[in-house]
Amino acid sequence: MADQESRNLLGLLNGVAKYTYYGDNEVTNEFLKEELYPNISEDEFQKLLMKHTGLLKSIISADMDYNQLAAFLSSHTKKREGGITEEQAAVYSKFWKNHKVKIHDSVISQSTWNSTLKSVSWRIDLKTQARHIDQLHTPSAIVELQLTNGNGCDKKEADVVRFEMDEEKLTNMISSLEEIEKQISSHCQ
């Protein structure tokens, strides 16, 4: 019987993930109740659903690694009221192992509105044509940024931005990036 309960809980977690994070509109709470828990009342099912959805949201919002998950589940197995069993903790571990990356990517995708940097490429060229002779054969950096449009659509279009920098501009940009790195490092420690 415990094996069937574990399968039902795994099915419930998969169903919640499908309609909450993967956008599957065919899976509903009513469908999950009919398929997995037909013998319990609507109130009992709602309590069960709220409990496990809450635990799942806690795991997802913290983007727990496996050590954090183990500690989190261990603390919930020790609770007297509202806790979970060892078997249920094993189901959560199995579920998270199979869905962590996909759910993480889905949450990131759903929460990105602006364009994101997809790739950067650059090269150094020498100018072979110029208005003034002193500008010939000076090195310049040609930078290409590929941006993915993240406006909430499923279809992500890519924009390419190209620009050129001379040695002075490149030096200024590198020093600015180093300053940003120092600031980030100082706030992370």
From TrEMBL:
Residues 116-188 form the COMM domain. Belongs to the COMM domain-containing protein 1 family. Pfam families: COMM_domain, COMMD1_N. The lineage of its organism: Eukaryota, Metazoa, Hemichordata, Enteropneusta, Harrimaniidae. This is COMM domain-containing protein 1. It comes from the Eukaryota.
